[in-house]
Amino acid sequence: MTQISSPPTSSVSAASHVEALLASYPDFPQPDILFRDLNPVFADAVAFRAIIDDLADQHRGQFDAVAGIEARGFLLAAAVGYAAGAAVLAVRKGGKLPGSVLTEEYELEYGTARLELEVGQLPAGSRVLILDDVLATGGTIAATSRLIERAGYTLTGVGVVLELTDLHGRERLGAAPVHAIMSV
Ligand code: AMP
User: Which of 29, 44, 158, 33 is nearest to 91 (CA)?
Assistant: First the structure.
């Protein structure tokens, strides 16, 4: 019988894995955007485990639930939620959630967008960690923070794999600690 073995725990830091595997694509998806592709990090079992452990460890004991932002944030939130024994919230793009939803409109580095969260998923006051792959202008995470607070939860941290520091997104976020595994 074929068995899937656990990847070895890495002795290399999560940041080193990201630095080694991060791919950059000029002018994608439109001119003047340098697109940062983290899929090679997710596709490397040892690197993926290292980033998940790092995100969980940085905020350990400080969250009851992890909010992942569609779509790449889902990959992180599911794994960190499992590793930390925490609940998972899916923050979705507009028009995909049924029932009673909260909506926030915001501006992207390219274009505008809408994010939504179903109400009543967690007890009031639940401590929530927001996760996404890239912190660029900060609009996406700021909108998600507003959804978390409007839903009656407490934002206790933000975790990203990569922060694009020249866009100053961190300055648009509130007081909750922001952890980036790597900054460029
Ligand atoms: P922002 O709201 O500007 O912080 O943008 C963050 C969201 O857009 C994240 O979900 C990223 O996946 C995506 N994003 C923005 N800029 C980039 C970029 N240069 N490379 C890759 N993803 C990006």
Answer: 158
